[in-house]
TrEMBL record:
InterPro entries in the cross-refs: NUDIX_hydrolase-like_dom_sf, NUDIX_hydrolase_CS, NUDIX_hydrolase_dom, RppH
UniProt enzyme class: hydrolase
The UniProt record lists the keyword Amino-acid biosynthesis: no
Cofactors demanded by this protein: Mg(2+); a divalent metal cation
Region (Disordered): 158-193
Function: Accelerates the degradation of transcripts by removing pyrophosphate from the 5'-end of triphosphorylated RNA, leading to a more labile monophosphorylated state that can stimulate subsequent ribonuclease cleavage.
Recorded name of the encoding gene: rppH
Protein family membership: Belongs to the Nudix hydrolase family. RppH subfamily.
SUPFAM superfamilies (UniProt xref): Nudix (SSF55811)
Protein name: RNA pyrophosphohydrolase
EC number of this enzyme: 3.6.1.-
Coiled-coil regions, chain positions: none
């Protein structure tokens, strides 16, 4: 599914440990690390796609997480020219994403990377909240900065200001023009904490 502007609808997942560190995973057969993310099916809402991708890529179920927030619309990034497949009927030039911030309520043992025939990741670790912005592949850095900047206040309420400090000027990239309306979502909580 690609929109008329060439962007594929997608969801991104920032899974946060209660101490403010975030889930950071290594792609199978690659040296690249990233947050879980994946394309939306045409019959899915962003929230439904997020829960499906969460299960496929991390093994977690809705009862293992609490939705703390989401970006207020689509955040876009363009693919590098070398990654654009021009032989396809519809040319995808990038992704448009709704990003979700989730708090882990389950146990680390609930995380399973091997539940599908083709796992997305082969290793994971917890990293400081802002670490991914400087360590993801270059063409995703701006969208990671925008997503984390938006989600940081909700993360800070759970983990505190020491765990999620205010970002420096390098993270203050301007939002791209053409924002769309905020998608609606409702998350289940995982109790007090």
């Amino acid at each position: 599914m690609i929109d008329p502007d060439g962007y594929r609808p997608n969801v991104g997942i920032v899974l946060m440990h209660p101490d403010g560190r975030v889930f950071w995973a290594r792609r199978v057969h690659r040296d690249g690390w990233q947050f879980p993310q994946g394309g939306m099916n045409s019959d899915e809402t962003p929230l439904e796609a997020m829960y499906r991708e969460l299960r496929e890529e991390t093994g977690l179920l809705p009862e293992h997480v609490e939705v703390l927030g989401a970006t207020p619309g689509w955040l876009r990034y363009r693919l590098p020219q070398r990654a654009i497949r021009r032989n396809d009927r519809l040319v995808c030039i990038g992704q448009k994403q709704v990003w979700f911030l989730l708090r882990l309520c389950g146990q680390e043992s609930d995380l399973r990377l091997d539940l599908t025939d083709k796992p997305e990741f082969d290793h994971w670790r917890w990293v400081d909240f802002w670490y991914p912005v400087e360590h993801v592949v270059m063409f995703k850095r701006s969208v990671y900065a925008r997503a984390l900047r938006h989600l940081a206040p909700a993360a800070r309420q759970v983990a505190g200001p020491a765990a999620v400090p205010t970002p420096g000027p390098e993270f203050r990239a301007a939002d791209p023009a053409g924002r769309s309306r905020s998608p609606r979502w409702r998350g289940a909580g995982c109790g007090p904490g």
